Predict the structure.
Amino acid sequence: MYGPRKKVWWFAITSRIIIIFLQFIFNSICPDHDADAFSSPRNPREKHSIFDNAITFLFGGLTRWDAQYFIHIAKYGFTYENTLAFFPLYPMAIRCTAMLLRAILFVLNDHSIIILTAVVINFICFIKSAVILFDLSLHVLKDVSLAYKATILYCLNPASIFFTAAYSESLFALLTFRTMLASVENNYYVFLPLSLSTLVRSNGLTNLGFPAYNWMKSIMNTAIPNFISEYKSKWSSIFDLRHICLSICQIGTIIILSILPFGLLQIYNYSKFCIPRANTTDLPPYIVHYAIENDLVLPGNFRSPWCDSAIPLAYSYVQEKYWNVGFLKYYQLKQIPQFLLAFPILYIMLKFNIKFLREHKSEILGLSIFGTKEEKEKTVKSLYPLEMFPFVVHSLFLTCFCIFIVHIQISTRLLVSASPVIFWYCAFALSYKTKFAEFEESCNLDSKWKVFLLTQKTYSKPDILILGYFLSYIIVGTFMYSNFLPWT
């Protein structure tokens, strides 16, 4: 018999195997669409064996769209300016792991090893992220059944194909959930997963809000009240003031250590692309030839406008130049299908975030969100626990960012990899409000893959809507993505 945490672990494995199987089936039965997208140039001298063809046959559907950029960076590094839109931790993890596996997988060429490594890393990261999400949900929601339901939904999330393909979503979710868990546990080493998350995706910087919130909560709940109550005593007030100063130094250190890797990355980008180079002989000829054919900027050959900015950050410039990303730039009539694609998750996030803020309006205005003594003396009966507050603010910011700035179709994968809130809200909306051992049937507890969502006898309207949304996006998304059709 499996407990909820063990069930989550096994179901995470099962869900990944299903996605890999689906992409293989869809990629086999349907010819690939001839998409006008970046394709990493291949070494013309690279040998191809029957084993390499088998890797392409089995996992080729996981290397579409942006996966080509990650594979390219893993093989060659940041060779073109447009590759600076992608952060280095995931492709570098692929590269380093592939180097270790090369001795074992000697029958495969470098390209095949890179693909296989990318899939394995995401497989492991996803399973680990699911377990951490369960621990985080249990800590915040304080309910085993809710934590379990939320994590099962995460395993069936509508952006599942991106958590299995050669994308950075699984690694980012792992580091983000670990940052959140370390924050709520007041772990001093929260800067480790936080700093790493800033090297996976740009929105990793928003994770700084979680340790900052918990620091503010600590200051508001203990240090400042003690200082005010003891101000008549000289030595007590000095001690409490010292405590406040040490606390400020602590959060300052966490912030500096968290953003330091991101800052070093910007220095690297500047030195590579903004400092003129005599030649590009360090790059393979076919890499240079591809740049010439597709009018791409090579390192040190051209001084881009971002190099002369007061704060030379390549990311925003590259996103605007190559992908036309900017405030309201995506609001065009031809993009209506993309808005419809993103509508479900944006609707869910906005609806429930606003509902939460309205429900806890008095606590927010009274600063009870920081755990003040007044809040402890007052018991407020509500559907959503107040501990969700920083996660709601974080998810609301990301939702607004998706609506107004980014390409709207990436909203689904951006939000489900960066916030647990959608899974918490949907867990509250599902039927079966009883304890875990009561709604998960006994036969399911002995199974590695059977879960209540897939085996229950009756479904409420919210169950049907949520499960229909999640499963339909898994199936349609996997079919579209694996055949190079628009689903990014």
Summary: Residues 2 and 447 are 8 Å apart (CA to CA). The two ends are 39 Å apart (CA to CA).
